[in-house]
Amino acid sequence: MKKFVLGLLIAATLVSAVYGQRAAKSSATLKVGATVVPHAELLNLVKADLAKQGITLQVVEYQDYVQPNEALVSGDLDANYFQHLPYLQSNERWNNALATAFGVHVEPLGLYSAKLKKIGDLKNGAVIGIPNDPSNGGRALLLLQANKLITLKDGTANLSPSPRDITANPKNLQFRELEAAQLPRSLPDLDAAVINGNYALQAGFTSGQALIIEGADSPYVNYVVVRKGSENDPRILALKKALLTTKVKNYIKKKWGGANAELSVIAAF
Known about the structure:
This protein has 11 helices and 13 strands. By secondary structure, the protein is α/β, with parallel strands linked by helices. Residues 1-26 and 259-263 have low confidence and may be disordered.
């Protein structure tokens, strides 16, 4: 009788343990902040893949670059996916609290215009919009320098130059520094603007419409970022496995690669 009761207790304990594991697995959530295109779109693409592993992926969409990092630092998010390393490092508090978990893709930066058809139409004194954060503003100036529109004091050694670092400006270009998300909407008031890839895509631009654009050698990989110490969180590793797949790579190429994949969203895996 005692053996029978003991057996029942052991069986009940095992059932409880298995049920508990299943419940924990089914209740695992991962809250990731992202800009709408292409980041949130790619995350939503792998939602079902993570669900099969018992992870509920919650995608929180943002329209700017500041809030996703602030929310991650404060603990409102488990991760975010929208930025490159120079941007993360441009803010000391973010850089001290956050870390890159893995890179996914590169978005070429381009110069777009609602008024001009080709770069040769750029007139003397033209007003150019650039992002107002140091990393993306500097990246914009480096693009202009690469196309011989300006010369910067330190050449390409400084990844975050400002308009104050311009030493030669043959066309006397005027620069208006605006929040990156505002640049597409500001095009009617500008001659042209250097726009980040995600905002260009969201505004409906294609790479072929850019007057000039970064090449395939761009070092600005977009990362999934977490709080320091969470790089090996099982949920983050599962997200990495889900995003760095042929499925996602082919989706990127089909939707944004076109005939000139080096001029659109570039898979980094």
